[in-house]
């Protein structure tokens, strides 16, 4: 049985974790499960904001880019998973990613969660 900690720390050749793929694919139940299990395994809800893929994307960047509003809201519920204004290696925040892809509802959600328009 693979621990969630190992799954969260295991990266593929693009530097992505299971949470990256769950967020990118819009798999809300998997995102929730990974967050819950990580909390249980770790004893706290401390998820490193340094878990970036090779493009510097965090799971929130991917949820925003692909328009998965429920996934983004789930990630934004937890202070430790928020990271709303962190830019990737291309200097894009989750707000930039959503706007570039034309996801106006995602832009609204991010702005409702105080995403900065000046970063």
What does this protein structure show overall?
This protein has about 120 residues and is mainly alpha-helical. The chain contains seven helices and no strands. Helix 2 runs parallel beside helix 4, helix 4 packs antiparallel against helix 5 and helix 4 runs parallel beside helix 6. This is Ankyrin.
Radius of gyration: 13 Å
* Uncertain spans: none
Report, as a whole number of angstroms, the end-to-end distance.
42 Å
What general outline do the C-alpha atoms trace? globular
Q: Classify the beta-strand content into a percent band.
A: under 5%
Oligomer: single chain
Helix content: 40-55%
Main sheet properties: none
Total helical segments: 7
Question: What does the average pLDDT come to?
Answer: 86
Query: How many extended strands?
Result: 0
The succession of helices and strands, N to C, reads HHHHHHH
Which class of secondary structure composition applies to the elements? mainly alpha
Q: Which features would summarize this protein structure in a list?
A:
7 helices, mainly alpha, 119 residues, single chain, 52% helix
């Amino acid at each position: 049985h693979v621990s969630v900690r190992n799954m969260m720390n295991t990266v593929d050749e693009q530097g992505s974790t299971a949470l990256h793929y769950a967020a990118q694919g819009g798999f809300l139940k998997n995102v929730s499960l990974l967050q819950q299990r990580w909390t249980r395994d770790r004893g706290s809800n401390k998820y490193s904001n340094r878990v970036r893929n090779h493009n510097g994307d965090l799971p929130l960047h991917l949820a925003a880019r692909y328009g998965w509003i429920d996934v983004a809201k789930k990630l934004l519920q937890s202070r430790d998973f928020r990271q709303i204004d962190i830019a990737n290696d291309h200097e894009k925040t989750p707000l930039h990613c959503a706007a570039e892809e034309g996801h106006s509802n995602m832009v609204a959600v991010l702005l409702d969660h105080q995403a900065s328009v000046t970063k």
